[in-house]
Amino acid sequence: MTAPKSIDEAVEQILSTYDTITVVGASANPSKAANEVPAYMKNHGWRIIPVNPAADEIVGERVYRSLADIPEQVGLVDVFRPGPECADVARAAVAAGASALWLQLGIRSDEARSIAEEGGLLYVEDRCLIIEQRRTGIVPA
């Protein structure tokens, strides 16, 4: 993968590369963005792997307690956790062999960015998957 020159390039590279989104902090509550976003992405062709220590099923998918519990290779990790928790998520993503980390709209973490970049992950923060998918029109192949 060629390193993106801008955040928009990173967004487009991520949306066009990954057909599966692992969602850390996915919510079973349909009124929360952490449920609405994965449901939208699933309805637009992405496979969703929810991660939440307190749920069994989210958007019709089996939920894993942590990234380490997922029994397959993780690629894109989408994060719905507060900024201060994102460094730990970034470490777990690197440990799981992920290749991209996306922090949702309103979430930023300099430490998570450093961990992701040092781990060779594509990195996006403070962007919404729904907004970016609509802006680019990209759907999985």
Secondary structure: elements and pairs:
Elements: H1 7-17, E1 20-24, H2 33-43, E2 47-51, E3 57-58, E4 61-62, E5 76-79, H3 86-95, E6 100-103, H4 110-118, E7 122-124, H5 129-136
Parallel strand pairs: 1-2, 1-5, 5-6, 6-7
Antiparallel strand pairs: 3-4
Polypeptide structure, described:
This protein has helices at 7-17, 33-43, 86-95, 110-118, 129-136; strands spanning 20-24, 47-51, 57-58, 61-62, 76-79, 100-103, 122-124. With 141 residues, it is α/β, with parallel strands linked by helices. The strands form two sheets. A five-stranded parallel beta sheet has the order 2-1-5-6-7, with helices on both faces. Strands 3-4 form a two-stranded antiparallel ribbon.
Structural class: alpha/beta
Unreliable sequence segments:
none
* 3D shape: globular
End-to-end Cα distance: 17 Å
Count of helical segments?
5
Radius of gyration: 14 Å
Quick one: biggest sheet? 5 strands, parallel
What letter string, H or E per element, gives the SSE order? HEHEEEEHEHEH
User: In which range does the helix fraction lie?
Assistant: 25-40%
- Total beta strands: 7
The multimeric state of the shown protein is: single chain
Strand content: 15-25%
Strand order of the largest sheet: 2-1-5-6-7
Q: Overall pLDDT, averaged? A: 96
